[in-house]
């Protein structure tokens, strides 16, 4: 089938994903401004918008990329993600909040390689599990094993930082992609078991930083750390619960404006929405986030190209788990792991990774074998 012209690729792209992601990003800028207040809040909101503009531009570039080119570049994209993870563990990596996860770049910019490693793993897994096989037959056991080894390397490097939240995202998206490839259910069950074993091992070794262990233990019993994470999670739940149906109004939340919730513009941005936009506003944001996940899975169902289908599944699983974990820790249903809420939380690396994920889904949708 001949490649579509560039203009036709843009004309035939369904822009719902972009509209939803842009709407979330713009609301995120308002929530970041409200959570940080004053001149600092204005500066962070502007940077959030700049990150949005850069991410949107990169996503639009991906729309123009033929999925076959993306498949050909998959090994290099995966290796670039690994290189970033190795670099952050070298002397040039920087430690923030107990995790050696950052690279500080010239001009005051910073980069979290674990976020971009998600892109590399999604593409790498799709390449391994879709390359050169009948799309209607399950992958061979050696392909599945290779896929898990492919995932194990970045997961191991991220745990060394340590960053349990990002490692769990990579693990969950790998489970979803392997399952969607048609592999035996036993592979999926074994993978889930291995994930739980890895988390337990990280606690026992101990691999995690003490404050990260406190986060997990305080989830079960907040009284174990009443002045730290226990206090923080209580304040978050209080903020979410005090918003009522319609909220207190943007910039009017007592918990938010009083500065009672640490890291509110990053980890706990959903509590700002819950308090100041209320149940209705928070539910609206969840519906937009859910639309992104569902849309990625719809693209996977409609795409006949195995590579494009697995890319869309990987993105959908990544966003779904990250949304579930972040909202869950805001509601006290999940332990605090430091995962940002896609498009809403402040953070340049997360914003760029999420917009690239949108571009990947659009690229997969416009692949040479997509079914309209």
TrEMBL record:
Domain of life: Bacteria
A GO-annotated cellular component: plasma membrane
EC number: 2.4.99.28
Membrane topology type: Multi-pass membrane protein
Subcellular location per the Swiss-Prot or TrEMBL entry: Membrane
Enzymatic reactions: [GlcNAc-(1->4)-Mur2Ac(oyl-L-Ala-gamma-D-Glu-L-Lys-D-Ala-D-Ala)](n)-di-trans,octa-cis-undecaprenyl diphosphate + beta-D-GlcNAc-(1->4)-Mur2Ac(oyl-L-Ala-gamma-D-Glu-L-Lys-D-Ala-D-Ala)-di-trans,octa-cis-undecaprenyl diphosphate = [GlcNAc-(1->4)-Mur2Ac(oyl-L-Ala-gamma-D-Glu-L-Lys-D-Ala-D-Ala)](n+1)-di-trans,octa-cis-undecaprenyl diphosphate + di-trans,octa-cis-undecaprenyl diphosphate + H(+)
Pathway this chain belongs to: Cell wall biogenesis; peptidoglycan biosynthesis
Molecular-function annotations in GO: lipid-linked peptidoglycan transporter activity; peptidoglycan glycosyltransferase activity
Entry-linked InterPro entries: Cell_cycle_FtsW-rel_CS, FtsW/RodA, RodA/MrdB
Ranges in a coiled coil: none
Protein name: peptidoglycan glycosyltransferase
Organism name: Ornithinimicrobium cerasi
Lineage of origin: Bacteria, Bacillati, Actinomycetota, Actinomycetes, Micrococcales
